[in-house]
Each structure stands twice: as structure tokens, then as C-alpha cells.
Amino acid sequence: MAIIKKLNPHTKQSYGVGARGIFWTNHAKDKMRFYRLSEQRILRILHFPSRIEEGIAPNTIAMMQSAGSAKHPHEIWIMIQETKVRRKIISAWKYPGKTKPGDPLPKEILMELNIKG
């Protein structure tokens, strides 16, 4: 029988995800439930984003992946906050349709995240 690692509701943290821990806010968990997004889907966006932009809130980063079909496209967005110890997932949402790219992050921050921009 395989052991499935689930989100620990008491610490709001998922263990075994890279060197840094992932901290899930209650707001992010509520939005995931509302939009029917799984923890693995959010982590996939975190590790392989299609687009990275500056978040609206101070010191945040927004990441996006396209989803849906050609006839009914949508985008799945997450907002995170980076610290030295962990990555805090603040929010997650679906946007119907396609958005135009905004301001990308500076190259220094992309290098720090180890993501090619």
C-alpha cells in the first residue's frame, strides 16, 4: 500500500517538497477548494510556470499556467511570497480567458528563483 502525503492541517505545511518548506495560508486552501485545484496542480505551477510577474501585494510573485481547451481557455494563477526559509502560497485562482503579459520580474530575482525568464 502506497503512503500518500497529505497537507498537514495543523501546521499548514506539506513536507517533502524540495529543500524549502511550503506554507499554505487558509486563504489559499479556501480558494483551492472553491476553484477545485489540487495541491499537486499548485505545486506544478510553482515549479514550472508559463509566466512570472510581480504580484499586486508588496513582496509577492505571481505565477501562471495556461489551462483549458482552445474553445474555453483559462489561466491558473498563484501568488507566493519568498523567504529564506520557505515559500508561502498566499492565493490561487482561475482567470477565464487569456491575459496580456504584464511587467516581468527583474533578472536578479529570476536567477535567485533558478527559473529562466
> What is the percentage of strand-forming residues?
25-35%
- Class of secondary structure makeup: alpha+beta
CATH architecture: Roll
Largest beta sheet: what is the strand line-up? Answer: 1-2-6-5-4-3
CATH topology: Nuclear Transport Factor 2, Chain: A
**CATH class annotation:** Alpha Beta
Q: What do the pLDDT scores average to?
A: 80
Helix proportion of residues, in percent?
Answer: 10-25%
**Biggest sheet record:** 6 strands, mixed
Count of strand segments? 6
Short key terms for the protein model shown above:
alpha+beta; six-stranded mixed beta sheet; Nuclear Transport Factor 2, Chain: A; single chain; 117 residues; 3 helices; globular; disordered N terminus
Give a description of the structure.
With 117 residues, the chain is of the alpha+beta class. The chain has one domain: Nuclear Transport Factor 2, Chain: A (Roll), CATH 3.10.450. The protein is 22% helix and 33% strand. The protein contains three helices and six strands. The protein has helices at residues 26-35, 39-47, 107-113; strands spanning 13-14, 21-24, 51-54, 61-68, 73-82, 86-96. Strands 1-2-6-5-4-3 form a six-stranded mixed beta sheet. Strand 3 and strand 4 form a beta hairpin. The protein starts with 12 loop residues before the first strand and ends with a helix. Residues 1-17 have low confidence and may be disordered.
